[in-house]
Amino acid sequence: MPTIKRLLELNKNFYLVSAILWLCAITVGSLLSGNMVREVDTGFDIPDKLVHGIFYFGNTLLFYLYFRKTSLKNEIIKVSVFSFLYGILIEVLQHVMPYERSFDVKDILANTVGILIAIFLIKFCLALSMR
Hints:
Strand content: under 5%
Number of strands: 0
Largest sheet: none
Number of helices: 6
Order of helices and strands: HHHHHH
Radius of gyration: 16 Å
């Protein structure tokens, strides 16, 4: 089983590709018609708000892992703000697109919880493993 230290040593391009694919998954999953989403049967009954939290947790973590060793200052703040604003953009797009989706403040709150959990993990857990 890989350790946190080994995961942190992976090539930066791995994190960039992973982050972009994750962002694409968020976008497609969030903008598909509500009927199309219900038709995809995964065998799991996962609450919608938990999915939002997981999506934005992963987004924040993957983009942070890509930017963490760059010259970008305060990368955790910038990555978190990007994730937050992207979540709002998705909600606005859901409102204006004709796919039976709607703007939901609770989705934004769930996204924010996922982002905050990622910040906590980055600040406390990853920082301890890097010592």
